[in-house]
Design goal:
Structural class: alpha/beta
CATH topology: Uracil-DNA Glycosylase, subunit E
Helix content: 25-40%
CATH class: Alpha Beta
Distance between the termini: 40 Å
Number of helices: 6
Largest sheet: 4 strands, parallel
CATH superfamily: Uracil-DNA glycosylase-like domain
Number of domains: 1
Shape: globular
Length: 166
């Protein structure tokens, strides 16, 4: 395993209310140079279903879907050693500056796309006084590895939580 640096910037603007955090980009996402780039990841189809639009294909359309719906998108880790796309293999991790982003943009809540992103957030920021009042919601991962949860249930759980803020 070798050290991998997170290759893309957060997607955020001054209207963002909810920050969606993954753990670290998959191999396919890094190859496609954008978040949730694996063709079987359910993230983009799920958001399209929730917001009643077509599934975005181009990176600019994906960014627009995030920003037009007052969301932000980033990952918990800035760099790590990782084997393939396996969260369980992550070692020697360095976190992104989540508190800095949240405070700079006035984010109201953080939604974790799966347990791994939450685990690393808690490890580095769980006791951070700047984050005490932050609403945190751990949601089922949209990863194709999380096949035990149907697309319908995944969408319903995410939609129920997003409706509190959008």
């Amino acid at each position: 395993m070798s050290k991998v640096i997170h290759p893309f910037e957060p997607v955020v603007d001054n209207n963002s209310k909810v920050l969606i955090l993954g753990s670290f980009p998959s191999v396919k996402s890094r190859e496609n140079n954008f978040y949730y780039g694996h063709q079987r990841n359910r993230f983009w189809p799920m958001l399209a279903d929730i917001f009643g639009c077509g599934v975005p294909v181009a990176t600019e359309d994906k960014k627009r879907l995030i920003l037009d719906n007052n969301l932000a998108l980033w990952d918990t880790l800035a760099s790590c050693e990782i084997h393939a796309s396996e969260d369980a293999s992550i070692r020697d991790e360095v976190p992104n500056d989540i508190p800095g982003l949240v405070k700079s943009y006035g984010i109201e809540a953080i939604f974790f796309n799966g347990k791994a992103s939450y685990k690393y957030y808690e490890k580095y920021f769980g006791k951070d006084a700047r984050m005490e009042d932050m609403i945190k919601v751990v949601l089922p991962s949209t990863s194709p590895a999380n096949a035990a949860i149907s697309a319908e249930r995944l969408t319903a759980e995410w939609k129920e939580q997003l409706q509190r803020f959008i």
